[in-house]
Please model this.
Amino acid sequence: MVPIRTLILAAAASTVLAGTALAEDDGKAGLPYSAGGLLAPCMEADNDARWGSYAETECEQYISGFVDALQLAGMTGRGHDICLPELNLPDEIRWAFMRYVNEDYDRRHLPAGAVLLDTLKAKFACSAQEASTGQ
Model:
């Protein structure tokens, strides 16, 4: 029997490895869900008074599921590359993701999972948090 952690890691790895193929759309035609596809509802959350709450839910639910998988697989926290914020987690990551994609807009063509993982490593690196708290 294969341990659940191995299955989760395999699923996450296949999502990230699929990132070698550029994806312009958001899952149509069999292409991976792109960072641009995720960026749209993340940004819409702040731009649309009427439908923004629905867009925010779509964006933050994707982020929450991704983060939950990383946490369940034991890939976050001290001794790892990613130390997640303690407060307002989905919103903090949403903002970091939007900034990260907009820093290099070509990232919007890559799979959302790969760019989200890169965002977490770049914006929530454990070494930076440990240095700022003196740990």
Notes: Confidence is low (pLDDT under 50) at residues 13-25.
